[in-house]
Amino acid sequence: MTAALALAGLGDIGLHAHLPALLRNPAVRVAGLVDPDPDRRALAAANGPAYADLAALLDDRTVHGVVLATPPWVTSELIATVTGTGRFVLAEKPVATSTRAASVLRDLPPAHRRRVQVGLTYRHDPALELLREWIADGVLGEPLLVRAHIHDERRDAALPEHTRRIETTLAHGMPVLHEGAHVFDWLAFLLGGPPLSVEDGWSLRTRRDLAAPNQCGARLRYPRGAVALVEFGWLTGALPRCELSFLGDRGHVLLDGRTFAMELHTADGVERVDFEPDRATRCFDRQLTRFVELVTGVREAPEPDLDDGLGALELSERVAGIAEEGARGEGTVSPARKYTGAGRPGARGRTP
């Protein structure tokens, strides 16, 4: 069976990641491309029928599902709209800008929730599967110290439109609200469940004119004694390396945050692992394959599901709140908070 899928949202990730994946997949027919911007529609029009709004496309009963590559401040309502018509949804993370804004999703009937796959795209990477095996097999030892340095979205004078878009996104919350959904999903998947507590947090602005702090971080405690130090940053003229490290008594893994190439250091030496093709291609392709399987009935449940997406959002929001408290305390950190998220990203230990 061929899945007739539409793509709503023709920004960077829509045009350069989701659309190529749709066109590469032989089991997909691109049923429509949606964006209110006529220039963006013109860029993609050769690849399928173009629409200015989603309502017009949903009149076509041959459409099985919609990929939502939309800003998070509109995504939650669109998920409710699309699932209400009986269609399936693959929704980019985060699914909302806050847990309050996501309330419409918590109220979705169970039958609608089962049609929602959340775009925690890099959960599907084989590097994470291998790293989880190493951790579970005790290759690194326990407990683990994890450091996640997630720095992206460089401020580039030659790309003023990109800077404007990221500054607009920052007005809806600190970088952790957008980048944290991925990272906290990875850590829950790798470390056996969501964190037991958020120990403290911090934030700062590198420029006073920014709508919110563009640098923030926290310390979290995970099952089996693991401690994670995470930091997120946007909009500086230069960026440090984007990477994650996992250190135990027996070994150390360094994971390149952009390519997911890994280096495993143990007493036996150094092992480097690379995967082909590039990270975006392999992850968006694997993600879409799982979505097509959901749409066509091969897969019974979405992976990751709406609980995973909401759990990652809630934790990101919790960290942002604690980081903001730390900033108001003039450099002090806020006290530990037990994490009791309703969503459980990775807690069920499922393999992607």
From TrEMBL:
Residues 323-352 are annotated as: Disordered. Residues 131-252 form the GFO/IDH/MocA-like oxidoreductase domain. Pfam families: GFO_IDH_MocA (PF01408), GFO_IDH_MocA_C3 (PF22725). InterPro entries: Gfo/Idh/MocA-like_OxRdtase_N, Gfo/Idh/MocA_Oxidoreductases, GFO_IDH_MocA-like_dom, NAD(P)-bd_dom_sf. One of its GO terms (molecular function) is nucleotide binding. It comes from Amycolatopsis antarctica. Residues 6-119 form the Gfo/Idh/MocA-like oxidoreductase N-terminal domain. This is Dehydrogenase.
